[in-house]
Amino acid sequence: MTNDASGTTGPFDNLLCFAVYAAGHAFNRVYKPLLDRLGLTYPQYLVILALRHADGQTVGALGEHLFLESNTLTPLIKRLEAAGFVQRRRDAADERVVRVHLTDRGRAAGDDAACLPPELFDSIGLPAGEIAALQQRLVALGDNLRRSAEERG
């Protein structure tokens, strides 16, 4: 718990959810100038990395990987397509299914974006082993919260 200049604590000091939220915003601020060089937003960067890992994914599969609903993901993909990073194509076996493929520009951006995380280690200010442990704990936290939401929903 931290005190401000008046000796009182902040309204969010004891909220884990706010600490995670604030850290996410801080990540976005650090990533922004790096991604601006590539012409990508942070969510677009994640789509590019997901497709770099497995090109030609369905919109549904991308949504599952990114924890995004199609009404959020579809406009994001359309903007990436308009910028020349991806191309949407109907699946040959089932035309109801849309697959997303990287273009040459998207592959080049993915290659450039893959080198971003090492540039950010200094900003994180933790040893590599602690970063890996923190990431594992955050993944477990997310999994537990999603499972709890499904059980309640």
TrEMBL record:
Organism of provenance: Rhizorhabdus wittichii (strain DSM 6014 / CCUG 31198 / JCM 15750 / NBRC 105917 / EY 4224 / RW1)
This protein's record includes keyword DNA-binding: yes
Record Pfam families: Staph_reg_Sar_Rot
A single BP term in Gene Ontology: response to stress
Protein name, UniProt field: Transcriptional regulator, MarR family
Intracellular or extracellular location(s): Cytoplasm
PANTHER family: ORGANIC HYDROPEROXIDE RESISTANCE TRANSCRIPTIONAL REGULATOR (PTHR33164:SF5), TRANSCRIPTIONAL REGULATOR, MARR FAMILY (PTHR33164)
GO cellular component: cytoplasm
